[in-house]
Amino acid sequence: MTAAKRPKVIIRNAPAYDPAKIEAIVREGIEELGLTGRVRGRITIKPNLVMAHAKIAPSAYTRPELMAGILGALRGAGGAEVRLSIAEKSGAGLPTPRIFRRAGYHRLRRPYGVRLVAIEEARKVRAPLYKGKVHDHILTAPEIVDRDFLVYAPKLKTNYLTHGLTAAVKLNVGIYRDRQRMKDHNYLLDAKIVDALEIGYPDLIVTDAIEVGFGGNQFTEHGRHLGLVLISDSPLAHDVVCALLLNLEPRSIGHLVEAEARGYGSLDLAGIDFGGDVTLAEARARTLGWDPNVIRVEKAHGNIRVLSGEPYCTGGCHGVFLDWLYMIKDRKPKLWPKLPAWTVVIGEYTGDVEADRLLLIGTCTKINGQVRARKVRRVRGCPPKHKVLVLSLLLKARIWNPLIRPELVFDGYIYQAFAIVRRFLRGRMG
């Protein structure tokens, strides 16, 4: 019996976003992993384009220079016959075609002959799941399911909704489309992410760790230079290394623990082979002293008193509200210390609540006790979408969020409305 192949993580120096240098790194990585012969046919690349904006989200997404390097390496390995697609579903309630444009991906189409596929606008494919705990199927684009080779290109960054880490495994949130993406985006989020690995298991991972997003909201946090590209053939092994690079404990990250429990690999560092020109110890020395500051929402702000009920929902209302707070800290630092005093209740809280202004976050939030408050406001949802929370707290609490910008309002409402009508008419016309 042939021994199972050990997962490998390659760590390479990449001091700048130089497409030619990145192409050489990726090409050598493909060869080192023994994948050259598999680069053929229909190739889909899934980046992280959850949000892209030059001023408020410059460090949230996989940069186009890195994607150019990946595309060049794939075209070089597979020849003219390969068919390249970039497939993605953005977040924050913003349409993916607009995020493709804001991220600079439109400039990649002609030089590399690549198609840009917005998952929410593509033909809907129902892919069954046989191991799912939350879902028994995934609705996604055909490019995710019907492909010969799948590449994930994450942006390495911290994320409070997923215990501090966004890397390869978590990238699978972006293959769900329509309402499935937000369904059970709560205390079941870790299981939901791992469900998608059954369909979204990449053959190759190339990670943008040249500049990492660190220490704030997943959209708006600031970048820190790390100067690395990571390449792997195992999403779990890759993410164990990424967690350590960000000074996170892999066993504290729920979706990694869940992936190990379902047989997708081990969290044991001793089971991982390494390659490249940087050792793990050398790479970790670059982040020495970086504090990911993964905290509970109650500890985030002095003026905002949060009363947490049970269960504490990292991937749901608690995490989304913490995310909303950190948008302000990241991009409105002058407003941060001046936030108005509110008492916020999230989850099922037992006890009396006395407050001047009371805010209830989430449909399931309730208070088992007496309530005395001059003003009570509720934001519904399980969890509320980021777009809903941003708008609701502007209208109900008069707090101006940095995502409220004319161009993003256009993208999220006017363009989105036209896109929905266009998809409806296309569907009616066959």
Large-scale geometry = globular
Helix coverage percent of residues? 25-40%
Q: Report the C-alpha radius of gyration, rounded.
A: 22 Å
| Proportion of beta-strand residues | 15-25%
Low-confidence stretches: none
Question: Whole-number average pLDDT?
Answer: 94
Following the backbone from N to C, one meets helices and strands in this order, namely EHEHEHHEEEHEEHEEHHEHEHEEEHH
**Which class of secondary structure composition applies to the elements?**
alpha/beta
Number of helices: 12
Main sheet?
A: 9 strands, mixed
Cα distance, first to last residue? 52 Å
Instruction: Say how many strands there are.
Output: 15
Which descriptors would you attach to this protein?
single chain, 430 residues, alpha/beta, nine-stranded mixed β-sheet, four-stranded parallel β-sheet
Q: What does this 3D model show about the protein?
A:
This protein is an alpha/beta fold and 430 residues long. The protein contains 12 helices and 15 strands. The strands form 3 sheets. Strands 1, 2, 3, 4, 7, 8, 9, 10 and 11 form a 9-stranded mixed beta sheet that branches. β2, α2 and β3 form a beta-alpha-beta unit. α1 crosses α2 and α6 crosses α8.
Produce the secondary structure layout.
Blueprint: E1 8-13, H1 19-32, E2 42-47, H2 64-78, E3 83-88, H3 96-102, H4 109-112, E4 114-118, E5 125-128, E6 137-140, H5 142-145, E7 149-153, E8 155-157, H6 189-195, E9 204-213, E10 223-232, H7 235-245, H8 254-261, E11 273-276, H9 280-285, E12 304-308, H10 317-331, E13 342-350, E14 353-368, E15 371-379, H11 386-397, H12 406-428
Parallel strand pairs: 1-11, 2-3, 2-7, 3-4, 7-9, 8-9, 12-13, 13-14, 14-15
Antiparallel strand pairs: 1-10, 5-6, 9-10
